[in-house]
Specification:
Blueprint (H helix, E strand, L loop, with lengths): L1 E8 L9 H13 L4 E3 L4 E4 L2 H16 L5 E8 L7 H14 L1
Antiparallel strand pairs: 1-3, 1-4, 2-3
GO cellular component, one term: cytosol
Family: Belongs to the UPF0045 family.
Protein name: Thiamine-binding protein
Length: about 100
């Protein structure tokens, strides 16, 4: 499965920024060893249900350690029997664009 998620604390720093808290969440994801990527809006992670959801919970907990309230947006692509889709899905689209 692939999960795209966004975690944000309830408040930001003096400029309204949340990058420090979000970086803590991304640190958890990267330490997990699961395939992942982070862009301007979401972090994507690929793996089995239990392992992906455990990482998401750990990331939420990391942000919760610096904020009394945490927002989580999550979208999942659940397709049993498929792996490597984090990059393969994009490659298929790029191939269609090249044709």
């Amino acid at each position: 499965m692939i999960v795209a998620f966004s975690i944000s604390p309830s408040g930001g720093d003096e400029t309204g920024g949340v990058s420090q808290a979000v970086a803590e969440a991304v640190r958890v994801v990267r330490a997990s060893g699961l395939p992942n990527e982070t862009n301007a809006m979401f972090t994507n992670i690929e793996g089995e249900w239990d392992e992906v959801m455990a990482v998401v919970k750990q990331a939420v907990d990391a942000v919760g350690a610096v904020s009394p309230r945490v927002s989580l947006v999550l979208k999942a692509d659940i397709r049993p029997g498929y792996t490597g889709q984090l990059t393969a899905k994009v490659e298929r689209i790029e191939q269609e664009l090249a044709d």
